[in-house]
């Protein structure tokens, strides 16, 4: 199986992977530790646990236990196996990070000896990939798709406007509450990775559509289970991460955009369009909530590649082919 078919890899739940191992209690304790000690969101905890599923499958395949599994040669075999069955390199690296966190917990809680061989195993070097972005015209097409004559359409338009205007992660939009929005200053407080709070900025269109949603649509959608959630589903409950992803996917397909267009495409486009417009890299880093400037620097490569395509398409001497009827010196 190659990387192109990664989406077809059967993903079992951690409960299924643990059946018969007697480790269910251990994982439940670990999940509680992630929530209480690291202050991770339920969404992040779920991702950490999901990334452990292949590890338990590999232990079962090799008839190994947790203590015997933390061997450097064994670990390298595990990483090679992940690549062999079709996981892409970034996914393998993420699973190694989850495994390191899990084994740190096992050592500190006395389940295995304090011998961390995971530190001596490196993740496979990721392929260099530039983030997929949309043009301004494509974003405008997407934003114009919702039918704003209905409460759901107003909700969807305000959600799309917010994702693009503020460059939010899907989890940040999901967790936003009504009181986090300040239409007067055009700001929204969000909780990013590592439970870090930041203030994201809104443009005039996003402020206008959010105002309309809060005044006209949200009261119509609101119900007993709404609480303070900013975005609600048709049942009056907080719109889920999956629900937000489905909203973006639905309108992207309607607009005729790439089938792979997703919520993070709007975040990538937000950053790239800012840099194309002359924004300073450090400012974009702060707006994205990146702790490391290296994470943001990839967008400078996206901006450069965009400029290169324009140059090659437009300049008469850009090297597209041999000049015809060129006069001599």
What is the H/E order? HHHHHHHHHHEEEHHHHH
Query: Main β-sheet: number of strands, strand sense, barrel status?
Result: 3 strands, antiparallel
Low-confidence runs (pLDDT<50, min 5 residues)?
1-11, 320-329
The percentage of residues in β strands lies in under 5%
**What structural class should be given to the helix and strand makeup?**
mainly alpha
Strand order of the largest sheet: 1-2-3
Descriptive report:
The protein is mostly helical and 329 residues long. It folds into 2 domains: 3-120, Orthogonal Bundle (DNA polymerase, domain 1); 136-313, Intergrase catalytic core (hpI Integrase, Chain A, Orthogonal Bundle), CATH 1.10.443. The protein is 55% helix and 4% strand. The chain contains 15 helices and 3 strands. The chain has helices at 14-18, 24-37, 42-50, 53-61, 66-69, 72-84, 89-108, 136-143, 151-166, 170-175, 204-221, 241-254, 263-276, 281-288, 293-314, and strands at 181-182, 187-191, 197-201. Strands 1-2-3 form a 3-stranded antiparallel beta sheet. A hairpin with a 4-residue loop joins strand 1 and strand 2. Helix 2 (24-37) packs antiparallel against helix 3 (42-50), helix 9 runs antiparallel to helix 11 (204-221) and helix 13 packs across helix 15. The N and C termini lie far apart (57 Å). The model is unreliable at 1-11 and 320-329 (pLDDT under 50).
What attributes characterize this protein structure?
3 strands; 4% strand; 55% helix; hpI Integrase, Chain A; disordered N terminus; disordered C terminus; 329 residues; DNA polymerase, domain 1; 15 helices
């Amino acid at each position: 199986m190659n990387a192109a078919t990664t989406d077809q890899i059967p993903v079992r739940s951690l409960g299924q992977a643990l059946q018969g191992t007697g480790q269910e209690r251990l994982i439940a304790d670990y999940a509680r530790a992630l929530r209480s000690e690291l202050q991770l969101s339920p969404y992040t905890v779920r991702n950490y646990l999901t990334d452990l599923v292949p590890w338990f499958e590999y232990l079962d395949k090799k008839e190994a236990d947790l203590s015997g599994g933390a061997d450097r040669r064994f670990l390298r075999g595990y990483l090679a196996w992940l690549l062999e069955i079709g996981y892409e390199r970034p996914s393998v690296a993420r699973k190694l990070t989850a495994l390191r966190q899990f084994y740190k917990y096992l050592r500190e809680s006395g389940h295995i000896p304090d011998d961390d061989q995971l530190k001596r195993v490196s993740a496979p070097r990721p392929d260099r990939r530039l983030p997929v972005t949309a043009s301004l015209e494509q974003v405008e097409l997407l934003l114009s798709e919702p039918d704003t004559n209905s409460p759901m359409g107003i909700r969807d338009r305000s959600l799309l406007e917010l994702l693009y205007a503020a460059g939010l992660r899907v989890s940040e939009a999901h967790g936003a509450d009504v009181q986090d929005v300040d239409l007067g200053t055009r700001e929204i407080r969000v909780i990013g990775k590592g439970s870090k709070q930041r203030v994201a900025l809104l443009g005039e269109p996003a402020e206008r559509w959010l105002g309309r949603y809060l005044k006209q649509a949200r009261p119509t959608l609101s119900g007993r289970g709404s609480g303070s959630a900013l975005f609600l589903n048709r049942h009056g409950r907080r719109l889920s991460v999956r629900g937000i992803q489905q909203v973006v996917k639905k309108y992207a397909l309607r607009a005729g955009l790439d089938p792979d267009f997703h919520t993070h495409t709007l975040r990538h486009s937000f950053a790239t369009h800012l840099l194309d417009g002359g924004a300073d890299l450090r400012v974009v880093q702060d707006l994205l909530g990146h702790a490391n400037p290296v994470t943001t620097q990839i967008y400078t490569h996206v901006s450069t590649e965009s400029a290169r395509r324009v140059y090659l398409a437009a300049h008469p001497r850009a090297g597209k082919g041999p000049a015809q009827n060129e006069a001599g010196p």
